[in-house]
Amino acid sequence: MRAEIIAIGSELLLGQIVNTNAKFLSQHLAEMGIPVYYHTVVGDNADRLKQAIEIAESRSSLIIFTGGLGPTKDDLTKDTIAKHIGVELELHEQAMNMIEKYFQKANRTMTENNRKQAMVLKNATILSNDYGMAPGMLYKNETHYYMLLPGPPKELEPMFMQYGRDALLNELDEQQVIKSKVLRFFGIGEAQLETEIEDIIDEQSNPTVAPLASNGEVKLRLTAKHMSEQEADKLIQALEEKIKKRIGQYLYGYNDSSLMGEVVRLLKSHNKTISIAESLTGGSFSAELTSFPGISENFFGGIVCYSNEAKKDLLHVQQNTLDSSGAISSECAAEMAVNIREKLKTDIGISFTGVAGPDPSEGKDVGTVWIGLSFKGREPYTFPLQLAGTRQSIRMRTTKYGCYYILKHFLA
Amino acid sequence: MRAEIIAIGSELLLGQIVNTNAKFLSQHLAEMGIPVYYHTVVGDNADRLKQAIEIAESRSSLIIFTGGLGPTKDDLTKDTIAKHIGVELELHEQAMNMIEKYFQKANRTMTENNRKQAMVLKNATILSNDYGMAPGMLYKNETHYYMLLPGPPKELEPMFMQYGRDALLNELDEQQVIKSKVLRFFGIGEAQLETEIEDIIDEQSNPTVAPLASNGEVKLRLTAKHMSEQEADKLIQALEEKIKKRIGQYLYGYNDSSLMGEVVRLLKSHNKTISIAESLTGGSFSAELTSFPGISENFFGGIVCYSNEAKKDLLHVQQNTLDSSGAISSECAAEMAVNIREKLKTDIGISFTGVAGPDPSEGKDVGTVWIGLSFKGREPYTFPLQLAGTRQSIRMRTTKYGCYYILKHFLA
């Protein structure tokens, strides 16, 4: 089974909304082992939809349509498909009853065009709509499967998860299991990572290896197919070991984890507290940390010391340090980290100072960064960075490096 | 000119990312008067991409490709297009220099595959990449336009706005000018806004009026067409006046401005300083404020006082206040705002305290928020909010309300 998703709706082509349905369905189809080869978006136009269906039929066996099941003139998905594949539409009594009840409940008069929503392809499997009026359906002929789903994500998503997914799984003849696992790396560029494991990528077949870079991180998705779930897991594990031997020092987490999420996990599992002194990052590290619920047990507070005065007045950085080394220095980063940790009596103190740009500062280039890290009972660590990019990207990657150094040195 | 957008990337078909580029480009093409008839997504596969190009050529005159311009083996957009339309790729010296400099600056070794990013279609118009390495391009033959843009939105969006848009406008034969202006509102819901100007929306033709709600704000985009730029401006101005008479009190800015951007403009134009005390928002307000370059003249520092101890130790909130009113109270918000302002000797102090959830706190519901605002020489203001939504959305909207109150009361 090879899938294509056709979204119908001029609002997508006008850029008024994003096609999140395609992402949602693709993700779940991938997990079910059904490869998606194309997404198509077409407007509310019968001729163009018909052509899109013909193209899809020539290259895919499962075509999933999203949108165009509503009551208005624009909603022409069902009519167009019915005509194209030569199947009649018939009234679905149960859906009609639900629609009538909906209007009674809302104390509104049902206009005649709402009957249209209860019309379904004859002999299709009906997918109930628990969050709206138009039912979905799965229709099957000798050559293709046609699945029709409503456009609003709040109707489509539960419909697919509750009914659509199982309807498809019932049709899959092969009982292969697909398992996938994402390995998350930091501190290594995409090109370098691929160079390190080029032979593994070239030889891939089962499991497959797909790299994806974003926001200074690189992910590798390993996907294995097997008749046995256990064997699929084993295939992934063997490949993971092989990759870890090459670039394991950059691996920080799996699947949906994040660098800050790993820091939170570490703080919680070891019952440790942290405090934060931010100059360069201006509160970004604290903001991201406090986006995690329940973090108040591990984080009491921090100081944003943007000016030298704030560094002295709020954080007691010595005038001498600022005079001799400057605020953008290993010495200042170390003092900031130690002082915030002592001030708030936490196990860890971390600090960020540097030049986000666009202009240099203290004669230091944009992208010059010092991170300070103080663990109770240990000498402070400091880490220099030289980052390229925009102000935002320098700040964003600085906070990621902060997480990375905590993870690397916490258990050292 | 009729457009089609082809996104290349298996990560889209695996549902790992959403195709926001298609939305972004569609929206801007619509404003430029170029209709988009199809979006297509295809994986990192040369044969399937070639077929997608052939289909697109049969139905569109402008084909915009997004993604696949990077250094890895997966990035096959340029090669496939070059082969398909019979044009050579050549090294773009300027791009190559930029890539080399990037690696020198980041102190990383440039692997050989990065050269690939500097290869461009011969005779194409080059679109500079100010936020990444791979340049974009616009190539034109007798029958079609081919525009190639990088996949990451943070590279694609500025490239299109700075260079791609003009390159296309130069090719459009009709000399009508399209002008648009965005009015930005806060403190009014989308439904209420639409009700207030329902007749204006219903009567629209030139200028058109498009409402768009996102992240607690509502935008109205006014777009006028005319042979004369001056007349187009006049059409927009007349409509803007009409709208302002109805809902002008909620208007806070234009076009790409933001609430925080307006706060920064106000601080700069009046040469005022601000300090920040954050509990609920955990540093988010400071982080957003310091995303603006040059803000160090107006912002010295802040305190993130997440725990009651930090409120007392770092900010000297009185124990008595915490005992009698609690941390989530008008009294605490007022003390936080006054104390941070006095501590850092600024003109303005602002504070945030509340319950972000998921659990209630101090017997107060999730979404209970107090914002404190202290101007030098005035009694402090405090503002209660009761917000619905997730932890992130409560925090995000709280920072927006903070900006809104500063803007509203600064000149009062």
Précis, in short:
Chains A, B: Pfam families: CinA (PF02464), CinA_KH (PF18146), MoCF_biosynth (PF00994). With 412 residues, chain A is an alpha/beta fold. In chain A, the strands form 4 sheets. In chain A, strands 2-1-3-8-7-6 form a 6-stranded mixed β-sheet, with helices on both faces.
Q: Return the average pLDDT of chain A rounded to an integer.
A: 92
Count of discrete domains of chain A:
3
Named CATH topology of the largest domain in chain A = Molybdenum Cofactor Biosythetic Enzyme, Chain A
Proportion of helical residues of chain A: 40-55%
Order of adjacent strands in the largest pleated sheet of chain A: 2-1-3-8-7-6
Radius of gyration of chain A: 28 Å
The percent range for strand residues of chain A is 15-25%
Largest sheet of chain A: 6 strands, mixed
Catalogue the unreliable spans of chain A: none
Please identify which CATH superfamily of the largest domain in chain A we are dealing with.
MoaB/Mog-like domain
Quote the distance from N terminus to C terminus of chain A.
50 Å
Q: What oligomeric state do these chains adopt?
A: homodimer
Please count the helical segments of chain A.
15
Structure description:
Two copies of one chain form a homodimer. With 412 residues, chain A is α/β, with parallel strands linked by helices. Chain A folds into three domains: 3-171, Molybdenum Cofactor Biosythetic Enzyme, Chain A (3-Layer(aba) Sandwich); 177-254, Alpha-Beta Plaits; 259-410, Alpha-Beta Complex (Maf protein), CATH 3.90.950. The first copy, chain A, has 15 helices and 17 strands. The first copy, chain A, has helices spanning 10-13, 20-32, 46-59, 77-85, 93-105, 153-171, 190-196, 198-203, 229-247, 259-270, 284-289, 308-313, 319-324, 330-344, 391-410, and strands at residues 3-8, 36-42, 62-66, 89-91, 119-121, 125-127, 136-140, 145-149, 177-186, 208-214, 217-226, 251-254, 274-278, 299-305, 348-354, 368-375, 381-386. In chain A, helix 2 (20-32) runs parallel beside helix 6, helix 3 (46-59) crosses helix 4 (77-85) and helix 10 runs parallel beside helix 15 (391-410). The longest helix of chain A has 20 residues, at 391-410. Chain A is elongated, with a radius of gyration of 28 Å. Chain A starts with a strand and ends with a helix. The relative contact order of chain A is 0.08. The model of chain A has no long low-confidence stretch (mean pLDDT 92). The interface between A and B is large, with 91 and 91 residues. Strand 2 of chain A pairs antiparallel with strand 2 (36-42) of chain B, so a sheet runs across the interface.
